[in-house]
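User: Hi! I have a protein structure encoded as tokens and I'd like to know what sequence might fold into it. I'm fairly new to this, so please keep things simple.
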């Protein structure tokens, strides 16, 4: 399993993310590609995110949700 650090994920330009209040939410699709893992068990919410100039509703999860979902796999 690839180790994760939230600060590095926030800086990574290849991962779409959005800050809502004080919490960062990461695109599950981008995280699955980055980790090369199945993240289908991770709890998520749909949040609006601007990708390539278009606003889309994207499945997103917090860093903690991703860690919790990875442990169950």
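Assistant: Happy to help. Inverse folding works backwards from shape to sequence: for each of the 73 positions I chose a residue that suits the local structure. Here it is:
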């Amino acid at each position: 399993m690839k180790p994760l650090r939230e600060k590095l994920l926030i800086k990574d330009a290849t991962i779409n993310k959005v800050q809502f209040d004080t919490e960062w939410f990461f695109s599950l699709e981008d995280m699955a590609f980055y980790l090369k893992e199945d993240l289908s068990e991770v709890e998520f919410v749909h949040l609006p995110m601007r990708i390539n100039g278009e606003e889309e509703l994207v499945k997103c999860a917090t860093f903690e949700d991703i860690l919790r979902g990875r442990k169950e796999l």
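A useful reference point when you look it over: The chain has three helices and four strands. Feel free to ask if any position seems puzzling.
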